[in-house]
Amino acid sequence: MTKVKSIKKEIFQVLIFFSISLIIVVGILTAWNLYNSKIEIIKHNQNQVLKQVDKEVNKLLINIEKIAQYIASNYDRNNLLLKNIVEINNNISSVLILSEEGVIKDFHAISNLNIYKGFDYSNKVYFRKLTDNLNSYWSNVFLSSIDEEPTISYSFKMEKSIGVIMIRLTELSDFLQRFKSQDNSHMIRIFDGSGVMIINPDAKHLVLQRYNASSSPVFTQLINKEKPFTQTIFKSLSLKSNQFGAYTKIKKTSWSILVRDNHNIIMKSLISLLVSIGLIIFFFIALSIFLSIRLSKNIFSSFDKLQTITSKIADGHYNVELNDLHYKELNNLLKSFNKMQVEIDKREDNLEKSLHSFKSLFNSTMESIVLTKNGKIVDVNDITLKLFNTESKKEFIGKQMFDFIEEDYHDLVKSNLIKNTQPYEVELIRPDGKRLQALVQGKIIEFEGKELRLTAVIDITELKQKDQLLFQQSKMASMGEMIGNIAHQWRQPLNTISTCASGIKFEKEFGVLNNDRIVETMDIIVDNTQFLSKTIDDFRNFFKSDKNSEKFLIKDIVDQALKILNASLKNYDIEVSKKYLDEEFYYEGLSNEFVQVIINLINNSKDAFISNKVADRFIFITESIENNKFILEIKDNAGGIPSEIVDKIFEPYFTTKHKSQGTGIGLYMSHQIIVDHMHGNLSVKNINMHIDSKTYIGASFKIELPLE
What we know:
Elements lengths: L6 H68 L6 H8 L3 E7 L5 E6 L15 H4 L7 E3 L3 E2 L6 E9 L2 E7 L2 H7 L11 E4 L5 E3 L4 H5 L8 H7 L8 E4 L6 E9 L4 E8 H52 L13 H37 L3 E6 L2 E5 L1 H6 L22 H7 L7 E6 L5 E13 L2 E10 L1 H49 L5 H29 L6 E4 H18 L3 E5 L6 E4 L1 H22 L5 E9 L2 E8 L29 H12 L3 E11 L2 E13 L2
Parallel strand pairs: 18-20
Antiparallel strand pairs: 1-2, 1-6, 3-5, 4-5, 5-6, 7-8, 7-11, 9-10, 10-11, 12-13, 12-16, 14-15, 15-16, 17-19, 20-21, 21-23, 22-23
Helix pairs in contact: 1-7, 7-8, 11-12, 11-13, 13-14, 14-15
């Protein structure tokens, strides 16, 4: 059983749910978008800083390489060259000129505390790395023996010498100090190719100590794992806090430039923003609940008043005072209820009149009408009493309808009980045992709140008897035509027998008759008498009254009909052309009736040829399969059927011949046999035919039979 719910409670819950849900969803989406926007801004700023630092570092390196090229080209011609370069460039602490063996030949430095000509520097990395294949070398950071500070060098080959430029990173470090994070710490760190820290404005002691960070989270979680310019979260060098940043690589020196922000500071600023959004969400939730309660109260009070008024109207109190409700729409609804009540009164009156009219119509129709529910008779009209020769409806009401239906038709009726049907035939049984042939049609209707089946019954017993009489008349008419065909078939053999007998008698009188002549003549007479006997058998098969259903081959029946009509067709110079399918088509039914149909159709063509005086006479018989149906088409070039009567030729007693030539029942009975007995269809239409470059008008009869 369905649980009954309160509409007030449900509306209130839905209103609160959707208002709160909408606010929460909007708030969450807003917070999410703000978070993403904040992160994207940080990413953009960090990437811009990386690009600026990358540009500045590459500018420094390119400048050093250009100075090296200048020294290599001009050193021998200018003895003050080294001094000028060191004094002019703040990024250079000293320049050394080494012999090919690594001994200092010349130098200039800001301070000359620990350097003299003749010192052997052949064991220094920046000297050893220069090989035959390598003309220059950028070193990693190392502790300089000249000024005892962390330094990087650029060594390069000269003509019979090696040049070494010692580089100070003071200006670069000053440049990097411009970039600070939210916590006022510096954003940039630079590491050499081996992971040793080159620049760290926040921890200069790590630079002096040449701290190697290759195993720290900076490398394991970021530089060795992610692609350049890809932000991620990683632990700081001290492992005390999370950092958020990215890196890029300097190709010339394999340096790693790191940009970072304190992730905890970022999250604190975001959390404060989210808290503000949460407070705003809470405020709007409280406001929506307040407004929902107020709105619901007004709506529900109006509903209560509306329910009270409609209940009084439902109880028949139509003079209820209509006070204005809170909402215009509900007032309009209330007025509509009042108007609806007036209309209901009118419709109740009309319904009573319609019910009275239905009952009058129910008993005044010419058809028998039976109302049933689930196969049990509920009511019958007066015509039903007359049809079944009964005096009272009590003999029907409450009984099963199958009590009045022949058992052979029970399955057919059962299959049609659950649907609206087209007319179909059944056999009924009257209480006195008499059988009736009836045409019935059923419709499902709703009457007095019940779903009933209304069945209309028409007595067609007399029509069936007339059809049988028509069939017999058609048979008699066919007999008349068959006698004519027999005359055509026998005329030639009888003439031959008569001629042979007269010839023998004549030869006997003149004494010229011999035994050979007698034998020859007797053989001719025997052959012709056998032909006459066979012809009698063919016609006997046509006229036999066997009503047993059998399976027959369609083309055999067509050939049988043509054999019967052969002499008549030849006599009227009618040429018949047949075209059968390779596949043989069998049908189960009464073969004699089907023969009669074929004969009627061919005779109809023959009569048309004679009536229209057509010179060239052709009949075409073809088999085909169309839309899962077997088609037998018989067409001629006899001039066709006038358009005003083509739709009437299958009606009983309708004929295009003179009254002395036909009864008009041949085509009607052919149609009845194909449609009612063989469950097919017989149709006709006028056609144009092209034969031997000539165009003819003719008629096409199509027999359609269902494929098994």
